[in-house]
Design goal:
By secondary structure, the protein is mainly beta. The protein is 12% helix and 32% strand. It is built from 2 helices and 12 strands. It has helices at residues 13-26, 157-164, and strands spanning 9-11, 36-38, 48-53, 58-63, 66-72, 75-76, 85-94, 124-128, 134-137, 147-149, 153-155, 172-176. The strands form 3 sheets. An 8-stranded mixed sheet has the order 5-4-3-12-7-8-9-11, covered by helices on one side. Strands 1-2 form a two-stranded antiparallel ribbon.
């Protein structure tokens, strides 16, 4: 007979295994009450988490469960939607180059753009585990609040720089529909 886990408690696995083993060896059919230890809330680490609401073009930064800041963003157009799901930041770059995606017809004939004014990525790139998708600044600030990108999440350049300084490689990113 098993019961569900309880928040704030952790099973002591070695002691529990020994209790089960001893009961089996003894051949008894007694109830075993597995020992647990309390987990203090202070031991829970607060890490940054990003939640992007694609339908309302908002990015929420949390520190653990505490909301830190909300940003307006641009997300993907209907033809190139921002993917839904659970991802993570896999690369961070300051002053990135923009390289046209060779597999996309919209970028046919485009040339790489070095860092500086007019770079489509702005001054910061936070690449996600979704191929070709990232969070970045934009040289088109009018697009913020709309579905204007080719799948990426665009931010105002100062906002992207602020966020870049508060997240790390491995930060979870959840992209949800509304």
């Amino acid at each position: 007979f098993f019961t569900h886990a309880h928040p704030g408690r952790a099973l002591r696995p070695f002691t529990t295994r020994m209790m089960i083993r001893n009961t089996i060896v003894a051949g008894t059919r007694t109830t075993i009450v597995a020992p647990v230890r309390k987990i203090q809330a202070a031991s829970a680490r607060s890490e940054p988490v990003i939640v992007i609401h694609r339908g309302i073009n908002r990015l929420y930064l949390y520190n653990g469960t505490r909301l830190v800041r909300v940003f307006p963003v641009a997300t993907g157009q209907p033809a190139w939607p921002t993917p839904l799901g659970h991802f993570e930041i896999v690369v961070k770059q300051k002053n990135p180059w923009w390289y046209p995606p060779t597999q996309d017809s919209w970028a046919a004939g485009a040339q790489p753009v070095p860092p500086g004014p007019g770079n489509p990525l702005g001054t910061r790139w936070m690449g996600l585990s979704a191929p070709g998708v990232g969070i970045h600044g934009t040289s088109e600030p009018w697009s913020i609040g709309h579905s204007e990108s080719h799948g990426c999440i665009r931010m105002q350049i100062p906002s992207a720089e602020w966020l870049y300084n508060r997240v790390h490689v491995g930060t979870p990113v959840f992209i949800i529909p509304a």
